[in-house]
Amino acid sequence: MTLFLQVAIILISAGVSEVSFSIHPDVVEFTSFRGEESVFIPGGASPFPDGEPGLPGMGYSMVIPQGTHLEDVEVEVLSTVNLPGIHSIAPVLSVPLSHPIPVIIPHSGSYSQGTFPSSAIHDVHTGNKTGFRIASFCYVPFTWNPSTGILSLVTSARLMPVIAPATDALRLVLSENQVRTAISALGSVVHNPEMLEAYSPEITGGCDGASWVVIADETHLPTLQPLIDLRASTHGSAFKSTQWIYSNYSGRDTQEQIRNYLIDAFENQGLVYALIVGDFGETSRVSSLHIGTSGPMNTTADLYYSDLDGDWDLDGDSNFGELSDGLDWYSDIYVGRFSTDVPSRLSTMVTKTIFYEVESPAGNWQTTALLAGAGLWIDDPPGYWGSFVCDSIDSRIPESWTVHKLYEDYYSHPNNQIDLYSQGVSYSSVNGHGNHGGVYWYSFPPTGIVTTANYFQMNNTGMPAVFHSIACHPGHLQDIACIAERLMFLPSGGGIAVMFNSHWGIGTPPSFGPSEWLELFFAEVLLQDEQYEIGVAHAISKDEFKANVSISMQNWILQENNLLGDPALRFVAGQMGTEEGEGDPSVIAPVISAPSPNPVSGICAVSYAMPAAGIASVSVYDLSGRLATTVHQGILSSGQGSLSFDASSLPSGRYSIVINSETGSAFTQMLILH
Asked: pTM here?
């Protein structure tokens, strides 16, 4: 929010929220594009379809009472100015990142009619997010007369949402854990978070179901068991075989049977997270979404398992995920996928996930990001580059982090990304053109950023990265081992969670496109709002995008960007102790290693190294930061040593072992399983 663009939401006693809008004309910017003008305001995006004048609007969202919906928004204009000059507004243009910008950009009939737009309010929408009612709309403060070129701006207005009863509104009774998780997540989505408690769904008195479930063929149970045990200690876990689901739940196909189980578990058993195991096939729903001239999508859309309202086929044509199928686009549970049916690959992902949470090595890699920005459309100077979204993401990354920026320009691009990944990177946004084999620079060989030709050269064992991208097709699961899957399968590092598109990435040159908005929201939710569970961050970034930005092809991006990885995985920068930073690098600190064995059920050995003899403590802390027990208090000699520790008296769960001395401190992770 800038000084010149102010929004206040005032709660009315009837549950209606009034928006006070004001904007200073000085924040309006113009960019020349193909002989016309693109208009920008801070945080704004155009809600109009392709071909319409690209005037930007501001999106707003709010939680509203149970059993209601947003019917309309009344506008009282308080002040207006005509912006200086004669203006020719460029039309909205949505272009897949892999396609060239059309030589002739279509213009709608609005260019030959009266003042545009005819209404300032657009995209009035109400949806369900884990039992909460979320209302959103877009307000466009501009009017433009194509015949005169006069562009007017509303500088002050009152926006008054009209909330009405909705007899068909879904009312759920959920567990306290489900509601609390949703409240924590929605705080960054709605503009009136103070009303989340008042407007929450009813909470059930008890729930005996697990909050985390993995769904897989029954033959995979032995391979998955260590992860199931870990999640039993962190969240409460269950395994449901596809065979059991198919025997106990009806549906027109296996995908609908799985979803009907998830709906039951969500509404009646307290389900929050679902990990689906399976390559493209009986566990993957193919979307038939069609928007304008784009589509049908015909690719995997795991939002089908996360957005549990309706059956995704309201029009009854057995084509799922279409605009006519009644989707509300909000996540109800948090879903990830291990995209394989190969036991060895599944074992690799299970092992990597457990190691990441239990034994991730300390070091600066935990707070290091790599942002790669390639040329996207460079034929129209000054060009449009992936560095634009990278710079916006960088503004969301904590200042204490190390950020590697690898940007392409008209003359060259860097080529040290694989070396940097091998040194250790916890978060990476790679933004360029793509296909199922990777993400690429625009030109100048070697063209690969992360591709099937170079990913295996990563040697970041124990330091796998969280990946996100705007590129086309790198998450296309129909192909045999697309790059998203290969990063997950790589034993020597690669990725621990990968969020790539199964179809086109979409841009709206020269403005921020929908793929870029989702990239930005994910970085904001993960790194700024500190929603450190990856599946929650992924879903909430989509929810916030849907609620607060109206833009062409938005729903396409919401369906195609899937998460490969465990949705309950905790980002390494949010694990116990890593938020404290590394301290002064000139001071040699002690070192402590993960216990052996790990997981621990009884007695284990904890190895350490002291730079010099001195007084030190070795303590065990639980997830809340409370001291669980002290392993040692007193003098430790210099050099390497080992301490014996009996964990049998502590409950199962994840703990941190911390060594403190006069020269510094260090920590490691321990998992206790009885």
From this structure: 0.85
Helix (H, G, I), strand (E, B) or coil at 184: helix
Whether 238 and 213 have beta carbons less than 8 Å apart is answered as yes
Mean pLDDT of 583-588: 44
Nearest to 631 by CA among 652, 589, 610, 603: 603
Q: Could you give the CA distance from residue 177 to residue 193 in angstroms, rounded to a whole number?
A: 18
Sorted by sequence, the CB contacts under 8 Å of residue 339 that are 6+ apart come out as 278, 279, 280, 477, 484, 485, 488, 564
| Per-residue confidence band for 625, with pLDDT thresholds at 50, 70 and 90 | low
Q: Which two tokens stand for residue 415?
A: 């080529």
> Considering only CA atoms, which of 537, 528, 522 is closest in space to residue 570?
537
Most confident region among 556-565, 590-599, 619-628 by mean pLDDT:
556-565
Mean pLDDT over 66-70 rounds to 96
Domain architecture of the chain: domains with CATH = 5-172 (2.60.40.3800), 360-516+547-574 (3.40.50.1460), 584-672 (2.60.40.2550)
The residue-averaged pLDDT of 258-262 equals: 98
Is 319 in a helix, a strand, or coil?
coil
Q: Is the dihedral of CA 573, 579, 584, 586 positive or negative?
A: negative
Residues 6+ apart with CB under 8 A from 618: 592, 606, 608, 630, 631, 632, 633, 643, 657, 658, 659
Phi and psi, residue 142, nearest 5°:
-105, 150
The pairing of beta strand 151-165 with beta strand 17-23: antiparallel
Strand ranges (E), 502-626: 506-507, 561-564, 591-592, 603-610, 614-621
Beta strand 465-469 with 495-501 is parallel
> Can you state the angle between helices 534-548 and 176-186, rounded to 10 degrees?
60
The per-residue pLDDT for 381 is 66
Scanning the structure block, which residue is given the tokens 């989707």?
A: 327
- Residue 641 phi/psi, 5° resolution? -155, 180
E strands, 99-206, are 121-129, 132-139, 142-144, 151-165, 173-174, 202-203
Residues contacting 637, CB < 8 A, separation 6+: 610, 613
E strands within 356-487?
368-373, 375-377, 384-385, 402-407, 427-431, 433-435, 438-440, 448-451, 465-469
Output Rg (C-alpha) for the chain, integer angstroms.
26
Helices in 533-607 by DSSP H: which ranges?
534-548, 554-560
pLDDT tier, 622 (very low <50, low <70, confident <90, very high otherwise): low
Confidence of residue 3 (pLDDT cuts 50, 70, 90): very low
Amino acid code (one letter) for 625: G
Residues 6+ apart with CB under 8 A from 318: 252
Give the span between the Cα atoms of 328 and 351, in whole angstroms.
36
Give the separation between CA 389 and CA 277, rounded to whole angstroms.
32
* Higher-confidence position of 285 and 479: 285
In the DSSP assignment, the letter for residue 525 is I
pLDDT at 581 over 70: no
In Å, how far are 311, 330, 534, 615 from 387, measured between CA atoms? 39, 29, 24, 49
pLDDT, tens digit, 9 for 90 and up, residues 522-541: 999 999 999 999 999 999 99
| Lowest mean pLDDT segment, chosen from 63-72, 377-386, 482-491, 503-512 | 377-386
Average pLDDT over residues 230-255: 97
Using CA atoms, how far residue 157 sits from 19, 56, 78, 170, in Å, is 8, 16, 5, 33
